[in-house]
Amino acid sequence: MTDVRIRPMTVEDAPAAERVTAIGFHELDTRMFRRSWPDPQLRPAERSAGWVARARHLATTDPGGCWVAERDDQMLGVVISFVREKMWLLGSYAVVPEAQGLGLGKALLAPALEHGRGCLRGMLNASSDPKALRRYHAAGFRLHPQMFVRGTPDRSQIPVVEKVREGTENDIDLMDSVDRRTRGAAHGADHRLLMQQFRLVVSESSSAQGYAYLDDGVALLAATDRRTASRLMWEAIASSDDVMVGHITPENGWAVDVGLAARLELHQEGYLALRNMRPPTPYLAHGALM
């Protein structure tokens, strides 16, 4: 690995980093492929644009947490991490297949973890890749299995959804407050990026608050009680023909209840890796921004 250079990632690196992660995750999906699932697909163009926007955002807010590995000007690996209110989060982490086994994963993760030194908590979404799971476990993360529900909902089972409205930038303080109560840290500047990429809905009453970003299902959801969380998830299901709701930990069994009531399929895949914290609830994490 002597000819490989580990350097800080720049905003200009985002498109190349997107291809590294797209190729790396596609190889992983192919290797972990289950016969009953659809064939893995390389990340489509519309998803690539969103990934690049997130990478540029995080390279701007957290330049010390974003690193790439390259050899002869060819990018071989990338790690994107960031800190929000004393919480360290891992947004993306991949090495291209031909460079795996060279120690690049460990070399990339080290400066990303250093960026979070002094943080009280840590969180990341992990695949089922055994090597990555060992690396996260060695870094002090506890692994919590995650489920997801997907499919075409039975519309006869969808209740009338009340007390849900469209969200705006004026709701950021409310959402940050809900974030702190559920996951222990606000999303802060990430909310403006999320609002550009997803539909935002909010539910609030005198006793409970919550919000969700919708994207053919749920991209991110947080609430102060399960009733509000369930209401927001029903809104997501009612708004989609083909639904996908992921990152459901056992502590968020309310989401399983809603998904099965809508006649969606339930599956298990991946882990929520946490350090010095319990699984947040009621909460469904975003894949990259948590």
In total, how many beta strands?
13
The H-and-E topology, N to C, reads as EHHEEEHEHEEHHEEEHEHEE
Radius of gyration: 19 Å
- Mean pLDDT over the full residue set: 95
CATH class of the largest domain: Alpha Beta
Oligomer: single chain
Individual helix count: 8
The CATH topology of the largest domain turns out to be Aminopeptidase
Structural category: alpha+beta
- Beta-strand percent range: 25-35%
Which outline best applies?
globular
Fraction of residues in H or I helices: 25-40%
- Our measurement of the CA-to-CA distance between the termini, rounded to an integer number of angstroms, reads 32 Å
CATH architecture group name of the largest domain: 3-Layer(aba) Sandwich
Can you characterise this structure?
This protein has 290 residues and is of the alpha+beta class. Strands 1, 2, 3, 4, 5, 6, 7, 8, 9, 10, 11, 12 and 13 form a 13-stranded mixed beta sheet that branches. β4, α3 and β5 form a beta-alpha-beta unit. The mean pLDDT is 95. It has helices at 14-31, 45-61, 104-115, 130-138, 172-182, 190-197, 226-238, 253-261; strands at 5-8, 66-71, 74-84, 87-95, 121-126, 142-151, 165-166, 199-204, 209-214, 217-223, 243-248, 265-275, 283-284. It has 2 domains: 5-119, 3-Layer(aba) Sandwich (Aminopeptidase); 149-284, 3-Layer(aba) Sandwich (Aminopeptidase), CATH 3.40.630.90. It has 8 helices and 13 strands.
